[in-house]
Amino acid sequence: MRIRGKLLALPGLLWLALFFALPLIFMLIISFYQRGVYGQLIAEFTMENYIRFFEPLYLRILFDTLVVSVATTLGTLLLAYPLAYYITRLPRAQQMIWLILIMIPFWINFLIRSYAWVIILRSQGVVNTTLINLGIIDVPLALLYNWGSVMLGMIYTLLPFMVLPLYVSLEKLDVRKLEAAHDLGAKPWQAFWHITLPLTKPGILIGSVLVFVSSLGMFVVPDIMGGAKSMLLGNVIQNQFLSARDWPFGAAISIIMMIMSALLIALYYKAMKWEERLEGTK
Description:
single chain; mainly alpha; MetI-like fold; two-stranded antiparallel ribbon
């Protein structure tokens, strides 16, 4: 039985080895290479690419990336939790309709969706034209190419990644516990704080990890909706590979981001486990 199970897992393991592990090893190796004058790879060991990452310019971009990622995670959580809760309270047939509506953006190309926001928010776009025609403003508002538009695009793009795990957790919630709390005199916010929120922590954890890690590597939204003023680490990596032709430095940043993501996720899991143990001792 065990041998049959391993054989079933073999295609997936081979796929991961070929298209995940091998490229990762390749990136790790070239991160220690040197860049030639014309961008060619020189197989001479150096730590210069990793040392260069700690220059003030890149530390500032790292700080901006972390701030945007945390803000995106919190923003999606605040929007997704009430939405997922509302969906789980609907009849089953209506729940399916809402879930399909949430998934519809994935049916449309990501670039098209991002450029649609440019059409909506630009100076002659839908929002500014409507406000001017209504006499609310005289000159167009600067709605595009700033951090606000980047946040809007990031939250819009990653919201489904938070809604779906939360929906699964809330859908499994035992409503009898809420009814018991209500019968014992608990107020709605007390029932939410002491019952609903703790029981849906797995969904919050999975959704937060999915959104945060995706935000760290995002470069399309900052590029299209943030312009030259908004630079995240994903944009730096893209520029190193496509424009500057400095693959060793781009690979070094990628490896640093991957290690950083793994450490943050491990710390997050540790904190959640520690909190669960703390609650168990009460």
